[in-house]
Amino acid sequence: MAPVALTAANASPPPLPAKKAYAAAQLNAGLNLDADGASTPYSATSTAVSEYDGAKDKVSHPASPSAIAKALVESTIPSTLPSPTDDGYYANLIASSLPTVATKPGATVFASAVDALEALAVKHSESVWVYDDAALVEFGARVSKSGSKKVHELQTRQGAGLELAGYASKTQGKFTIFASIKTLQYLLPSIDKIEGDVLINLATTANHESLEFTDGLYASGTLKALASLPEDWEVVFSSGDKIIDTASKLYAGEPRKVIHVVESTYSGRETAAYTFPAPQPAAIEDLTIQNGSATQLYLAPAGYLASGIAAVLPASAGLVQLNTLSPSSDALFAALTTEGGRKTVQVLGATKADAEALKAVVLASLYAASGSSKSVLPLVKSLVAASVAAIPDLTTEQVAKPGKVVSFFTAPTSPLPQLLAHLFLSSPSLSTRLAQFGSASARGVRSVLSLAPASTPAAALSVEEPSDVTWLSDANVLKSADVLASAKQGSIVVVALPWSEEELPVKFTRSEIQTIQSKQLRVFLLDLAAAPTTPIQEQVAFLLLYTGTSKLSQGVWKVLDAFHNHQVAREDVEAAQAALFEVNAASWEIPELEEGKTEKVKSQWEWDALPGLAGVVASSDEQGSGMGPWDLAARHLFFREAFAVPSAKTTDNAQGLPGVSALRPSMSEETFLVTVSENRRLTPQTYDRNVFHLELDTAGTGLHYDVGEAIGIHGWNDAEEVREFCEMYGVDPDSLVTFPSPTRAGTLESRTVFQLLQQNVDLFGRPGKAFYAALAKVATNKSEAMRLKFISAPEGAELFKRMAEKETVTFADVLKGFKTARPTIEELVGLIPEIKPRHYSIASSQKAVGDKVELLIVTVDWVDVHGSPRFGQCTRYLSALAPGSKVTVSIKPSVMKLPPDDKQPIIMAGLGTGAAPFRAFMQHRAWQRTQGIEVGPLIYYFGSRYRSQEYLYGEDIEAYIASGVIAHAGLAFSRDGVDKSYIQHKMSADKALLSKLLKGKGSDAAYFYLCGPTWPVPDVYEALVGSLTSEGGMERKAAEDYIEELKEEERYVLEVY
User: Fold this and answer.
1) What does CATH list as the number for 668-713+837-894?
2) CATH class of residue range 719-836
3) Which residues form the FAD-binding FR-type domain (predicted)?
4) 550 with 577: CB under 8 angstroms?
């Protein structure tokens, strides 16, 4: 077996880390980075002992205080705890290299550029103000937690600009603010009233609608807003290491008013080695130019988009990055013009208005340049683009980064990625950077460590960075995320979990094993026992991989030992060497997929949380909740501008006014308050399934929907069950609770406990492991605390699964069962998620029915293992609604869209309530026929158990068949005959018809839709493939490829659940 070395072949080995604390170790030997086959290979039975002979008798013992002090980078940085076995040792070791107000200029710090900016701000400001929405994205958060008397917190709300102006007028000296793009809209109305030496550091980090983090500089309206600031305000942009350089200049010189737009999402958040600066009274460079001689130029403010363009810029094009919105006219003129020719400049903006606003800035500067009237000015165009992918002439292929990239998938509190980053950051021959992407959904952190030659240009590390090593040390992450998606061909996978070689294949899914084998990934198992020194053992294992040896060399041991204040024990090194071995993943058998079952597809990494030494912070976290007096409710009514959600719109169809009942949900999306006009059961009362038809009157609300779209129902919990819970929990249902809006930072809501539990909190939803873990911390009974902790731990997986799937316990059940685990109502708001809207396919066409929404719904109910009845929260709510009841709804787009050509045939396959969108299709085509519009044929396949009980909308269907709206129907009722008949059997009988329709061209090209449960999907797929092979003259491979083409063309559409 070839050795494993993580740097390119024939590369010169960089020297070992040269941190000041390591000097006494006399580390002059280089790490072996040459993958030339000379290193000792690993073997499955390797138990080799380290070559560091001087450590044979080494045992773990605390270092003396003088030795610890000597090991620190700077004498001003707090001491680490004396031993790796002590609580907080690793956190303090990492924190010892962070910048603080005591850090001296010229000192080397290992931190992000944002960390350094925060330290500079506190050190060189008279007062520092941090807005809550900035702190939520970890911008200014470390400042707000510093305990400094000069640091103050602010809420993002209406009137924020006036509030800031008042504070600024009372401050002498530098006045620093940490805000975010979200804050800007609240500052702008009064920004002209803010006076003094003011620096607003503006984070570009924002939340996408999916709650994942994104860069907000290119959000709609941002550039336009910045370009419209009063003339006495200066706007500067910075990203990456330029953030620190720009900040050092902003904290020097004459008083001024500046908005410093900081790329705080990607490169600004990466951990790297920086020299902590002193304020330097120098001018900020106006422009950063790349390929300036090119005749085709892109122009954008310095930030994430500009950095992305720079990474893929072809030689034929150039890039001009604006570091300020008021650049020197002559400098900009020189950059954008050329003698004897004319350049084309494309100015980028998220919208036409943004691009035009920036274009106006550029043109004004050009016309003000000396000699502009005698020269040929460039052709300046506005280009609407918010990402590199939106720019037509640029490639979106990921550019391979030099050096090696390691992706760690760890628990939120694992210190390993940062320990390794700090270890390698000391090497002057390496460019080391670490980016961390937390995920609340996966309950873990993905850390991307880049190790490259020192001269390598630094491009921002992405969430899905292609990786040479994938390191997995958290089983929960593996269960929910596709950790192998970014693994390079032939790369290394390290499973640092206590699993045996025999267990390992079972832990991966069928698809993951296929990925491992198709990518020829080398899989290593690192089976370490849990111990306080496990992070050190993991570092040893990584260094073994990095050097391509099976034993830790003397030089490598010395540097690691110095890093840990001479406390790396021999037993830890030997444990790592013995625990690391390669497994033969190529011999793993790929399990067969059971008939009728589909494999769960794991999602890609969702970056929706911020990592920290104490764990991840979800992007949706807000300020704490609290119970309070009734006068708070009055404040909310009288001072609505401070507490309302201004972008929300809810309309009551009775009065055409905002509906009081619709205060829940407080969402920024448009919601409508509609009225139930009919609730009619379709199945017999004696039948065991309640399928019902629900009509909602939308007159006067402005609600509009397209055929095939879905409606979101914002349901409530059962009132009687909520009252029973309040009595059991010992809370007054009429008490008032004030809590943050779940969708908008800085806004509050006040509700009674009863309203909160009925309308907000998903009290009868199913809890995840995190809920059990949180309860374990508040349980006062030791036995209950231990049981809760066990359920949340990997060891309790079977018990958790049984409780979730068989007993179907709810949050309320858990709180009732563990009587000493009693979080306050305010705390429950943070522990139990909001009731989410449930989406149902609309079973009507608005063209045909007018101001109505018609729904086809089946009540979800079951009996648990204890014989207790259980109910689906939303279907229970809907089934109980009487005519006249008010319901809050929203509209959601769907994949079930009609073909672009009305004459194209439609093949519909629906099971049970999966018939809903197809009823809308039928209504719409019937309406079109009444309007004289030529339409294509409808082919309808429908399946249920009994014709007499579940032929849903049977009379309508028969009428459509008789009138020719439905050209052909295949009705399958599985329990009516001796031989069970399903829709795939009806489809197989129509092979010739289906083959002809699927292979049609132009107006004859059919669209196929399937809606219903997932189980028939493979059989339906086989029926379609069979029609193409037996009647369409295709080989099976060609038929399968043809279906894939239909998917790409959106002519094969599935909506299954």
Assistant:
1) 2.40.30.10
2) mainly alpha
3) 669-900
4) yes
